[in-house]
Amino acid sequence: PPASDYQAENATVSQGAVEANHTGFTGTGFVNYDNVIGSYVEWSIPAATAGNVSVAIRYANGVANGASVDRPMDVTVNGTLVRSALSFPSTGNWDTWQTVTLTVGLSAGTNRIRAIATTASGGPNVDRLSTGVPGDTAPPTA
Ligand code: GCU
Predict the structure, then answer these.
(1) How far is CA 65 from CA 35, 68, 69, 89, in A?
(2) C-alpha–C-alpha distance, residues 48 and 60, integer Å
(3) Which residues line ligand 1 (CB under 6 A)?
(4) Averaged over 113-135, what is the pLDDT?
(5) CA-35 nearest atom, ligand 1
(6) Whose CA is nearest to atom 10 of ligand 1?
């Protein structure tokens, strides 16, 4: 399918805050997950028909408390766990963004894709979820 971007700041956030105090995000900001297990962002993704789609989650994971640590997240689609503790490795600093890509099966209609922190560090800072564009790390154009 063609590329579609879904900004984290427009998604449903549980235990997190929309912020814009680092550079390089797209849209108007990013979600800073609270540093707890279970914090999440959930996107609503429309699909005309059922099928597999490539999903890229764009994130930054810098230094916290003097350390660079992985911030793995579970991914669920419509409530079903599809990836357990998917790795979101350090990006070096909070202004450097990378993508983690995965392929998920969607149903026809509106799909709920949720990325849930699995450690007490919480999730990384999350900029957006894109469908149909594996490896997209394009910087903001404005
Ligand atoms: C820093 C950083 C935040 C980040 C946080 C964290 O405070 O500025 O953007 O979310 O660390 O460790 O989660």
Answers:
(1) 12, 8, 10, 16
(2) 31
(3) 22, 32, 35, 64, 94, 122, 125
(4) 91
(5) 13
(6) 32
Q: What is the pTM of this model?
A: 0.93
ipTM score: 0.98
Residues 86/72, Cβ–Cβ less than 8 Å: yes
Q: What separation in Å is there between the alpha carbon of 63 and the centre of ligand 1?
A: 8
**Ligand 1 closest atom vs CA 71:** 13
Q: pLDDT class for 133, splitting at 50, 70, 90?
A: low
In percent, how much of the chain has pLDDT > 90? 82
- Ligand 1 atom closest to residue 34's alpha carbon, by position in its atom list: 13
How close is the Cα of 94 to the center of ligand 1, in Å? 7
Domains present along the chain, CATH in parentheses: 4-131 (2.60.120.260)
